[in-house]
Amino acid sequence: MKRRETSLFWRLVLRVALVLCGGATLLSAAAWYYARAAADDAYDRLLLGAAIQITANMTVDAGNLGVTLPSSAFELLGLAERDRIFYRVVGPDGRTLTGYDDLDIGINVTAARAGPVFLTTEYRNVPVRVAVVSRALSDPSFSGWAYVVMAQTTEARRGLAGELTTRAMILVGIMSLLALAGTVLAIRYSLLPVDALAATLRARDPQDLTPVEADMPRELKPFVGSINHFMGRLDERVTLLQRFIADAAHQIRTPLTALSAQVDMLEDDDLDVNRKRHLGRVRDRVSQLARLTNQLLSHAMVIHRSDSVRFKPVDLGDIARKAFRSTVPITVDPDVVVSFEDSAEPVFVRGDAVSLREAIANIIDNALQHGVEQRLAVRVRREDDRALVEVADDGPGIPPAEWAAVTTRFVSSKMGEGSMGLGFAIAAEVALAHRGTVRFLEKGGRDFTVILDVPLYREGT
Amino acid sequence: MWRQLRPIALVAVLGFASPAGAVEGTRAFFPALEAERGRLVINGATDIEAMEPLIRDFQETARDVAIDYTDYVTNDLYRDADIACRLKQPFGDLLLSSSVDQLVKLANDGCALAHVSPETRDVPAWANWRDEVFGFTFEPSVMVYHKDFVPPEDVPHTHGELTDLLRFKPDYYRGRIGTYDLRQSGIGYLLAFLDAQQASTTYGRLLESLSRAEAVLRCCNNAVLSELDSGNVYIGYNILGSYAYAAARRNGKLRIVLPRDYTLILSRGALVPTGAKRPELAGRFLDYLLSERGQDVAREKAFFFSRSGALPAEVDGPEKLVESGIGRPIRIGPALLAAQDRLQRSRFIDDWTKLIVDTPVRLRPN
Q1: Dmax over Cα atoms in chain B, in whole Å?
Q2: What is the pLDDT of residue A39?
Q3: A101 in contact with B at a CB cutoff of 8 Å?
Q4: Same domain for B252 and B317?
Q5: Which residues of chain B does A84 touch, with a Cβ-Cβ cutoff of 8 Å?
Q6: Is the residue at B358 inside a domain?
Q7: DSSP state of A135
């Protein structure tokens, strides 16, 4: 199951859409209600008008109540074109004078004496709207109340109400869509600074732990503040730690040098074979320790420099040559063939010459210490927009499974037989600070090769 | 009076020739042109002679349909349809009647099925109510006279002129004016009721003149027309143009006048009753009646007048009947319910009967 990524944008849009949907539903219901009321009101007037016309045409003639049904009354109702009309005229004695006798539907006609009565009911299985209108007859021979019950089916009312509701709903729908679109735009606009902040943070140099300076809306200030506060503390801790390591390495170096001198001074001529072997091991370990201490100092320096030194264009070929010279000792085994091959043209990168030299030196040193049997080649070349320093040796190399691990501190490919130390870690650190990588080429048709790969410097970048 | 007339109506329905000759009330069967796969039962208040061309042409388009047509008097048709509707019994698949107010009443009482098709959409609004009652003809109500007995200077062109003619020459025209008997004919009642509404004063005077002239009352159009044909009656009033034109084609001495003050125009109605067994067949026939083809056949062979076309030859009437405002189409709609109110109807007919039928001759003013 894929977990949905939560997003501020979608959260806001979803909630606004829900509110708008709810609002639209409510408004539509209200529109329907009002439309029905309006349609009823409009058609009730027709119904009332027709009923009144009929009451007006009641006449008392020789003690008999008569009524003429004016066509105009029916024409009036006929304005609701498709609706059927039912009516009943009731005399004072409660007898039906004319019309539909069964249009009784439980109406108490006397209620209409005070004024017209409207009701909605069913007649002959169809919904009808009914109006009851009364008329007081005050003929001396014939007095009492007469009533006209006028009923009309509700097709036109429902049609009108439906039409009004539909139109209102279309308007509500359009409004809701506009509101939603507006909200989407507004949210997108409001969230722009968040993206900008993220971009700023992403674009930062990994070593840069200085406070984030960006123009942020008020709402994001606490967030940026927290980030800055955290970075400040982290910076302090890191600085403290680096200083401690550098101090510790420095402190160790002095007694270590003394120790090394003392060990060198030990005469081994009069020792038996067994002790001689022990002394040899002590010498090895001491030199290993010295190298490690140097590397620690070098690491601290590299980190310190990447924090504090401004990068500038430097010639990688030049740096690699210097590193090569300083690293390969004059006393190197004469059986080993070492070579340095510079690029035909300068290979400029943007970086710190000291750190880069340190990195290359560490890679070469590593090859000398752990790899070389008969051949060591250092090459500087450019490939597209990359600058490459390749260090190849004919040693056994490092199996691919361990490539990722060796660039981490204190991991050796040959466990137990002397740590590889910080060499690759320093090189990787420097490469990272220069937006490059340390890569490996497997031993195969060619020698095992370690490559420091950093982007070429270009004018204006 | 009504009770006494019933047996005559029954005899007519049974198919006997009535004394008046070719009257409404007969049954005709039109077998299918091919193997019968459906039978459409039409109950109409329209002459078989008028319907026959339409039915036969319809069968050309629906060769497997047989048609059983029964011709009624309008009032009988309404009564039977009303009873059938109340009892929820079948009474034909399609009702045709010139008395559209009765069809409107039936539809209002919920006795009609709606029918919607491309053809019904083209029917003008005044000839369609609720998609249940459709007017499919265009029939002006006209005056017919016999050329041999009515001199040219006497020919009435308006309702007023007819009234005056009867006033000025009472003796000559006594017993020579023919019109509907409102008690028997639904269409007669409807036309008279609408006359009274169109021009109540003119109508009152006309009624009085008709009374004085001892008008000849007949149940139906064709009965009046056959009296005209035989020369017993000189002028027929409120005759449907279609029947009048058919009669005039048979007898060249009969002439038709469309009144120039106003001419009521009836659109014969059709309705599919709720109890119809084959409503889809009824719908097909209805669509045919409303279609261009059906309308053409109706104009040429059955009803002779049409909404759009000019007046038929030799008919005396205004050029543009409807546009001039003289032709007044009877709108098929709820307004006709006023005509069908039982109190209204009985009083209107009572008044009419009192004036035309019951007034002893000696009491009639001269």
Answers
A1: 65
A2: 93
A3: no
A4: no
A5: 107-108, 110, 130, 334
A6: yes
A7: E
Q: With beta carbons under 8 A apart, name residues in chain A contacting B341.
A: 69, 98-99
Q: Could you give the number of structural domains in chain B?
A: 2
Nearest CA in chain A to B331: A75
Token pair 């329907």 is at which residue?
A32
Domain that holds residue B255: 141-264+341-363
Examine residue B336 and state whether it is found in any structural domain, yes or no: no
Phi–psi pair at B27, nearest 5 degrees? -120, 140
Output Rg (C-alpha) for chain B, integer angstroms: 20
Range 117-146 of B in CB contact (< 8 A) with A: 125, 129-130
A102 part of contact set with chain B, CB < 8 Å? no
How many residue pairs from chains A and B have C-beta atoms closer than 8 A?
54
CB contact under 8 A, A82 and B130: yes
Judge: A81–B333 Cβ closer than 8 Å, yes or no.
Answer: yes
Instruction: Give residue A374's region: left, alpha or beta (phi > 0; psi -120 to 50).
Output: alpha
pLDDT at position B4 = 39
pLDDT at A416: 41
Q: What is the pLDDT of residues A59-104, one digit of tens each?
A: 887 778 888 888 889 989 988 888 999 999 998 888 888 999 888 7
The 10s digit of each residue's pLDDT in A324-340 is 888 887 777 778 888 88
Rounded Cα distance between A29 and A132, Å, is 30
The tokens of B73 are what?
A: 């008097």
Please provide the average confidence, as pLDDT, over all residues in chain A: 84
Whether the CB of A97 is below 8 Å from some CB of chain B: the reply is: yes
B121, B219: one domain: no
Q: Is residue B8 located within the same domain as residue B129?
A: yes
Please say whether the dihedral angle defined by the alpha carbons of residues B210, B216, B222 and B226, taken in this order, is positive or negative. Answer: negative
Contact B178, B218 (CB under 8 A): yes
Q: What are the counts of helices (DSSP H) followed by strands (DSSP E) for chain B?
A: 15, 16
**Residue B114: closest C-alpha in chain A:** A82
Amino acid at B277: K
Helix A273-308 / helix A221-265 crossing angle, nearest 10 deg: 150
ipTM over 0.85: no
- With a cut of 50, say whether residue B190 has pLDDT above it: yes
Q: Does A159 touch chain B (CB under 8 A)?
A: no
